Amino acid sequence: MQKKNLIKIFLVILADITAFGMVIPLTPILARSFGEESFKIGLLISAYSMVQFLFAPFWGRLSDRFGRRQVLLLGFLGSCLAHLFFAFSESFQDIIFSRILAGCFGGNVVIASAYISDITSPSQRSKNLGLIGMAFGAGFTLGPLLGFLFIILGSQLGDLAPFGVYFASMGASFLCILNFFFSLFFLEESLSSKKNLKSVFKNNTLFKRPSLGHLWASLKTPHLGLVLIMSFILWFSLAHIEPVLILLVQDDFSWSKKLAYSSFIYIGMLMVLTQSWIVRQWIPKWGESFVNLLGLIFMSLGLIGIGVSIFFIQPGTGFFSLAFFILFFGVTGFSVGYSLSSTCLNGTISLLTSSKVQGGIFGVNQSLSSMARIFGPALGGWVYQNVNHQSPFLFAGFLSLLVFFIAFFSKEKFPNKGKQ
């Protein structure tokens, strides 16, 4: 029964992230088509994260009281509307609104993480939470591929929204509807006791803004607070390069839009490999602490490698140049390292948290992720535009290295239950 439920929640979150993956690579490309620069593209990503920061703890706490399945259903409907609006966007302002709407319902990963924690034992939790990372990798692989097919189909129907490149978002909206009905008929509730809808709405404190007080209380919790801080720095490092990686390969390596789009497929494949095989082999052998440290080393070297690759670009050397191979190994190290470290940190957060408040803590964790993505993309876009193209990646590599030293000197404070 546990295995069946794990497969179902994996399929549900895979479909949700695949829909997201169909749209997210288009965001900087379409923003560029409206004449926007990298700083505003960073602000666009920040707008989504700011709203997600406000709403993620609410969805997590609502699921603790009302049940995971019902909250997931609401999230899928909201995501469907957001993707649908994106498909009809005719200006940069329309895209901003669609991303804000998506951020309002961006708590599905929080609920899925809590769902997995509900149905697994502590010794298996870190390994099973790797399914979330696997879903991210598979979603960011399938999303661009499926989105590309919808773009081809949309181009046959017309060039203006919702057709042409916008048609990928129509496909994402349709996928969210399918996900809603699959969850409605096949996904079981993971909480044995939950309040009915009427009692939830009577509890006014549920709808008060919980994040700041709850966030501060979580950060002050011994050991748990330190893991949350490490997660925040790691996410800030990732968010710093999120809006500019696809711009880098276009601006400095002269890649076409199609080739730049395909880089998301490669990153997704690496995440799938890491989460589906490496994580599930290494954590039982060495435990969360060591695998986390190893992942942070890979991520730091990878990010620095991406930044350094720019210095080796030489005109007329062809596609398979020294700069390309440095970029290739940098992206590989960054993708594998982030997958390893993020899974271990999520597992550690779950192991340090009472089963009664898993949804709320994962909501706080998601809020910290959103906070990192509020400031990270805007800063990365500004640095890319006003300093130089390599600086965002070098700075992100330094931040990852900082997390490594924090984790190394505090490794004895954290549980290592994944090790068998």
List the helices and strands and how they pair.
Elements: H1 2-23, H2 26-33, H3 38-66, H4 68-87, H5 92-104, H6 108-119, H7 122-157, H8 167-186, H9 197-202, H10 211-220, H11 224-241, H12 245-251, H13 257-309, H14 322-351, H15 358-386, H16 391-409
Please identify which CATH superfamily we are dealing with.
MFS general substrate transporter like domains
Helix/strand-derived category reads mainly alpha
Helix content: over 70%
Q: Return the domain count.
A: 1
pLDDT < 50 runs, ≥5 residues: 195-210
Share in β-strands: under 5%
Rg, Å, rounded: 20 Å
What is the terminal separation in angstroms? 23 Å
What CATH calls the topology is Growth Hormone, Chain: A
CATH class: Mainly Alpha
Query: Shape, please?
Result: globular
Query: What's the CATH architecture name?
Result: Up-down Bundle
Number of helices: 16
- Strand tally, please? 0
* H-E order: HHHHHHHHHHHHHHHH
Mean pLDDT across the residues is: 83
Biggest sheet: strands, sense, closure? none
Description:
Helices cover 79% and strands 0% of the residues. It is mostly helical. The protein has one domain: Up-down Bundle (Growth Hormone, Chain: A), CATH 1.20.1250. It is globular.
Q: Which key features would you list for this structure?
A:
420 residues, mainly alpha, Growth Hormone, Chain: A, 16 helices, 0% strand, globular
Brief digest:
The chain has 420 residues and is mainly alpha-helical. The protein has helices at 2-23, 26-33, 38-66, 68-87, 92-104, 108-119, 122-157, 167-186, 197-202, 211-220, 224-241, 245-251, 257-309, 322-351, 358-386, 391-409. The chain has 16 helices and no strands.
